[in-house]
Amino acid sequence: MAELSRREILISGTALGALGALGITSPAQADALADGWTWPASGSVAGSGTGADPRWVWDDVADPLLASLFDRGVIPEVNRLLYDWNRNDQPLPAGLPDDLRAFIEQARRLPSWADQAKLDAASRFHALKGNYIVVLTIVGAGMLATAIPKEARAVYYSAGGADLKDRVAKTNVLAYAVRPQNAWGPGGTAVVEAVKTRLVHAAVRHLLKSSPWSGPIPISQEDMLVTWHTLATYSMRGMREWKVRISSAESTAYLHSLQLLAHMLGIRDEFIPATWDTSYTQSDIVLPRNMGPTSEGVELNGILRNMLAELTSPGSIDKPLVNAFARYLTGNQAADWNGIPREPLWDPVVKTAWPLLVQFREGLIGLPLVPAAAWLLDEMIKKWTTFYLTKGAQTKIVIPTGNRPS
Ligand code: HEM
What we know:
This protein has about 400 residues and is an all-alpha fold. It has helices spanning about 1-10, 15-25, 25-35, 60-70, 75-80, 100-105, 115-145, 150-155, 165-175, 190-205, 220-240, 250-265, 275-290, 295-310, 320-335, 345-360, 375-390. Bound molecules: protoporphyrin IX containing FE.
């Protein structure tokens, strides 16, 4: 009976299906559901809401479409046709199935609230503070992702879980696309990569049905918000904590670019925070209840740290500084969930040296106050940021056709 119910949740893809099955299988989740969704939609980009709970909303339009494309066996052909669809203003290739074409034409439209002046300011901010943004949204958020059980397990059991290097490179295609001036304009690529990602997520929801995955369908609207906060709210909090200089126009612009990203990935406007304040409130609701340890997360996190160590000093497996920085970025609880070893020598050094290094870079303190160890960190971060800021576009986002090979 329980098994049938899980399948029902996975297969239905609707809030109704999930609710029906939930009542039978999982009292704990039913309790959580009874808690309801307390974050007020008045604090959202939409300004009001339907009262829907984002835990039980997925992607009403993309999910049935992808299921149908899989049933018709056309995904490899779709991938072939979309491979050279790169620019926001590029017409779609001939030969795409009509329903997919109609979906993309709709999904590629920017919302009426997109504001080009703010987007321009956001990319200037990215150019100015790119190093901190990379450290927080790629390294820090990557480390947090493995401490989000649903995300860790979804990544582990999907095709990308078997080749994390390629998976990270593909994710960086989107990170890279949203940075430049005109990212969302005619010559940019952010719209295309966001729409492709929306298709990939719908494919993952469909494919994970036939994997060792169990539980509600992943990548719900709440799951999306959780990951969004590990990029948006977490990075803003981090920069504030490190005393990075940010004007109020820059902070508004940065938020705007992230709101647009959320919208283009299929998050409903009624769930996207309108301000940093409402964002902090929402983050404090959704993050704690969606984080914790998994064996899959520990395995993936170890691979991620090896990748970072390899960038720091090729051929080296010695990674105390990487471990210490990862612990510093995510805090002790997430670091312990991720199985990151404690580094008695480096943990206290990083904690002291990094904020001072940032304050020196921001012109807030003089050189003599920066401890010598900070320059080792500086060197490491430079290697990471050079890599992530320059090598983002070497691969393409494609719709997976299967899960992790077992
Ligand atoms: C794929 C970004 C949320 C699980 C991708 C890709 C990008 C991306 C760029 C394409 C790269 C690729 O194909 O590997 C994002 C962003 C998110 C988000 C920006 C939120 C703001 C989530 C969440 C989950 C998730 C919440 C799971 C709970 C996956 C999986 C794949 C994927 C499993 C496919 C991996 C494969 O290739 O097999 N995501 N994602 N994502 N994402 Fe997300």
